[in-house]
Specification:
This protein is an all-alpha fold. The protein has two domains: 59 residues, no CATH class; 179 residues, no CATH class. It is 76% helix and 0% strand. The chain is built from ten helices and no strands. Helix 3 packs parallel to helix 5. The protein is globular. Belongs to the UPF0014 family. InterPro entries: UPF0014_fam. Keywords: Membrane, Transmembrane, Transmembrane helix. Pfam families: UPF0014.
């Protein structure tokens, strides 16, 4: 198989420019948002990817630098979770949630030999797992904290009948936090029928083997399920114990 896709060059740049212009026109006609939202996002995304591509090209050649890249990604994921959940400095504890998710999956993949211990395999796979754990952690934290705020009367009722603060919080937060797992479950249930996720498409384009692409994709999806489940479970415990809490705006 000799064909390739998205080779860097004038054709790619021109196509991207046309799509940005078309999206901007739709924004203008439909009065969706700031007219420059799409061009600004496209320029920022292209710049970030250019920098990341250069960094990864150098970093992936050594295991130690690949691990350093993953640590930077992990720190960025923790900061994103804390910011999205409006948890302030208490959001630093969400590092435990992310570490539980990634720590439950990546070592298993490495010890089994399915994923080789080199940067070119470790960074993409661990990055996908970390990204999935980040999404689930963010959603779980936001919804659990929102639920406690909006259903505070039920929390107080639980406290009045002798429940501990942890158990009273858990009663109202658990069902809300569980919603964070639905996207991953739905993606796994519908893979191949509704969507062809990125790992499948990437391996298919790189190797031309649909069988190998399917094997990589199911590995990623099952790993994501484990990572997200662990991350949400730990997140729920942190919120229930008031370790991670919502920052109150200053008045």
């Amino acid at each position: 198989m000799s064909s390739s896709i998205a080779d860097p060059g004038i054709a790619l740049a021109a196509l991207c420019a046309v799509m940005v212009v078309l999206a901007t026109v739709v924004y203008r006609v439909a009065h969706l948002d700031n007219l420059f939202a799409v061009p600004a996002a496209a320029v920022r995304g292209a710049g970030q990817l250019a920098i990341v591509s250069l960094v990864l090209a150098a970093a992936l050649t050594h295991l130690w630098s690949s691990i350093l890249v993953l640590l930077v990604m992990f720190a960025a994921a923790v900061a994103t979770c804390a910011r999205r959940a409006r948890a302030g400095w208490s959001g630093v504890w969400l590092a435990v949630s992310l570490a539980s998710g990634v720590g439950a999956v990546v070592p298993l993949m490495l010890l089994s030999g399915v994923v080789p211990l080199d940067g070119y395999a470790l960074v993409p796979v661990a990055g996908i797992v970390l990204g999935g754990a980040m999404t689930a952690t963010t959603l779980g934290t936001r919804r659990a904290l929102d639920s406690i705020e909006t259903r505070w009367g039920e929390v107080e009722a639980g406290l009045s009948i002798g429940l501990s603060a942890r158990d009273a919080h858990m009663e109202v937060a658990r069902s809300a936090a569980q919603d964070a797992l639905l996207p991953g479950l739905d993606q796994t249930r519908t893979v191949g029928l509704v969507t062809l996720p990125g790992a499948f498409v990437g391996v298919l384009l790189a190797t031309g083997s649909a069988v190998q692409a399917g094997a990589v994709q199911i590995l990623v999806l099952v790993g994501l399920l484990l990572a997200q489940t662990c991350a949400v479970a730990v997140t729920l415990e942190l919120v229930a114990r008031n370790t991670v809490r919502r920052v109150r705006p200053q008045t």
